[in-house]
Write a structure and sequence with these properties.
alpha+beta, two-stranded antiparallel sheet, 15 helices, single chain, globular
């Protein structure tokens, strides 16, 4: 590229932590020598990234061959839209949205190819998401498929339901085919970045999402519709976390004009502490209490935070497994 990068992240000590969140190859591509990663580590990480991307494309090709409609989400999409070498950004899960009626056939097709659910370590209240399931992983463990029936965790589905995202989806060029993989409308995808970062309590797991947004708004296409973004966020009840997300982008150095005049939110001391963590790239990641405090003050509307707390309490009594109904 090199892609735009917040100035604070190009300097020590933050630059030395970039590989922890981005991987050695992408960190070196973005920040250069400042990351101080051995050349062999960068080479090995780049090789693994290319192999992982090809396996993710193979998975999507299997769904296409079985004529199972699916929309790729999140990192797989922004990797192809925003980065000259998509493989370096295609880390983590492969997120796909499918219709509920197609889920049994997807499980049959990929199950016959060796995919199986491999549950993550259980939290005390279980797996709360009703939008997706535990990872459905390939036999070799390279592809962790995150199967979505809604674009993201509640409450986003109130503003962006699956049918609406499907209806606006478009071909993703350069991601394999024919036929090409489907990707969300750009404004839908940007809202997914913000809502996912909020779900991560704007903590270390959100670094790649915020980086994608930073690169995107620094001049990469495709264009975002700011009026639609604000309308969907208000309808979903995620206006406050979107405002915090936009404030972080601005305060990390993104030109204000890139944010289209969308409202930014900086709720007092809680936001100041969060911004300090982001500038230093989390030298001391927040603990459980800190994550809960940030949810209450920054990453969820009050009514949403209350509903999530209630779901956790219910989960302590009857722990959700995060598997399709009837799946053993």
């Amino acid at each position: 590229m090199p892609a735009p990068l917040p100035a604070a992240w190009r300097q020590p000590p933050a630059a030395a932590r970039l590989p922890l969140y981005l991987g050695a190859a992408l960190a070196e591509a973005l920040a250069g020598p400042a990351v101080a990663v051995p050349a062999e580590a960068v080479r090995q990480d780049a090789l693994a990234a290319r192999f992982r991307l090809q396996r993710q494309r193979d998975c999507l090709a299997q769904l296409q061959a079985a004529e199972i409609p699916a929309v790729a989400l999140k990192g797989f999409v922004t990797a192809h839209w925003l980065y000259d070498t998509p493989a370096l950004r295609c880390s983590g899960d492969l997120d796909v949205l499918v219709r509920g009626g197609d889920l049994p056939r997807l499980l049959d097709v990929l199950g016959a190819a060796g995919y199986a659910f491999r549950p993550l370590p259980a939290k005390p209240w279980g797996f709360l998401s009703r939008a997706s399931f535990q990872p459905f992983a390939s036999a070799d463990g390279v592809v962790n498929l995150d199967i979505h029936l809604q674009p993201d965790c509640w409450p986003l589905e109130r503003g962006l339901p699956a049918d609406e995202l499907f209806a606006a989806a478009r071909p993703l060029q350069g991601a394999g085919g024919p036929p090409p993989v489907l990707a969300p409308d750009p404004t839908h995808q940007f809202l997914l970045l913000a809502s996912n970062a909020a779900k991560d309590k704007f903590g270390p797991d959100a670094v790649k999402k915020l980086l994608d947004a930073y690169v995107w708004l620094s001049g990469r296409s495709p264009a975002i519709d700011p009026d639609l973004l604000a309308r969907l966020a208000a309808r979903a009840g995620v206006a406050r976390p979107l405002g915090v997300f936009l404030a972080l982008l601005a305060d990390l150095g993104l030109p204000a004009a890139s944010l289209h005049g969308l409202p930014q939110r900086r709720p007092g001391r809680a936001y100041a502490a969060l911004l300090a963590d982001w500038r230093a790239l989390f030298p001391r990641p927040p603990g459980a209490f800190g994550r809960l405090a940030r949810e209450l003050r920054l990453s969820a509307e009050p009514a949403v935070a209350t509903a999530l707390a209630w779901r956790r309490l219910l989960g302590l009594v009857r722990r959700p497994r995060g598997l399709p109904e009837g799946w053993e």
